[in-house]
Amino acid sequence: MCSMRAAARACAHSEQQRLWTGYTTCRQAKMFLKGPDLAVTRYALSIRRRDMHCLVGIITEHVALNRHLKLIGVKDNSICPLCSEKEETALHFLGQCPAALVTIWQRVLGTHPLTALELGKVKFLNLIRFAHSSGRFTAP
Ligand SMILES: [Zn+2]
Questions:
Q1: Which of 9, 46, 96, 106 is most buried, judged by most C-beta within 10 A?
Q2: Ligand 1 centroid, distance to 55 Cα (angstroms)
Q3: In this structure, what are the phi and psi dihedrals at residue 26, rounded to the nearest 5 degrees?
Q4: Rounded to the nearest whole angstrom, what is the distance from the C-alpha of residue 46 to the centroid of ligand 1?
Q5: For the chain, what is the domain count?
């Protein structure tokens, strides 16, 4: 019985991994999540609802930043209001905007700017801390 359960679990994990790597969508989420991960699931289930809201917003980019707001028809343009140089994506806001909250980033993480690869390695707790400190990822 246990070996059947283990085999089913391994099969499910393999299928999840195949689907995750096979999809060409979810660019932002793939920056933060490398595939199905039980430790990430356990972490997500252990945090407060408010923190989960921030984390999901950051990972999926479904958050009140101009790129997403333009995509859903709320704003006319997606340019960052702080630097007026690039689209206000989560990557830009969190790690690359020259005008955005650099002091908060340096306090929370100790460095700025960050590449997409570096941002993908930031601990979720630090992303949540930054999100709360920025005031931009609050629930409506
Ligand atoms: Zn900017």
A1: 96
A2: 20
A3: 65, 40
A4: 32
A5: 1
